Amino acid sequence: MRERLGALHGVCADRIVVAASASEFIGRMTAAVHQRAPAASVFTPSPGYGDYARAARQWRLRPLGAAGDATLVWATEPASPTGKTARIPSVRPDAVLVVDEAYAPLRLEGTAPPVPQHAWRLLSPNKALGMTGVRAAYAVAPVDADELAQALVALAPSWPLGADGVALLTAWSAAETPAWLAASRERLSAWKSQQLALCASLGWACEPSVTPFFVARWPGVEAPAALLPSLRAQGVKLRDTADMGLPGAVRLSVQPPDAQAALRAAWQAVMA
Fold first, then answer.
1. 43: enclosing H helix or E strand
2. 75 contacts 45 by C-beta, under 8 angstroms
3. Which three-class secondary structure state does DSSP give residue 252?
């Protein structure tokens, strides 16, 4: 598997670190940094995925507000939950920079900023393949990161991937997958335009994004989170972004027309 993924990225197999999931890798990388430097510090994007901070608390890494001062720096491109293009921060020479590219294959517009050569790249293809229930991920180590890569391998479970994860990563590295992804992005772009128009007709304020998800706010609704159980009862589940550092908003994934119709009906029923 490492040879297949290395060939996909044009690197040797030794630079591929397989993980049970992106979250498992986040915890393992944090543990490895703590082993190297027990007094290490961390920078996490805000708003952002909560597992960066959770792993840092578990391993007692000191949170810092400036990436340039931290031992371990997490970046997400494109950003989550906003789906916007994110600036990859500058770091000090001895820092570990990890760019989480979970949604990079699903970028619908614009050009991604270049990933620095000294950065680790974290990829979890289950999002792009539409199979988020299958937990499998991997990281591409930068050149001259052999010592840290070996430490990560030593910290791994004895068998991090199940057969489903192996199947997913095998499909990810297949020759026909890029064409399938391109067709998927084209379909998602059309659905996104329709969904943004729907949200506007409902009076929602939607923020721009480059991904098949975006953040929305409900003007005039004092407690957005309080409406989520009522929407769920109507069969529609939206992601409250409060625990990602963005209170008062929800994240919507782009859905096909029948699901958009269900969203409209559920919202109208709740508002009534």
1. strand 41-43
2. yes
3. strand
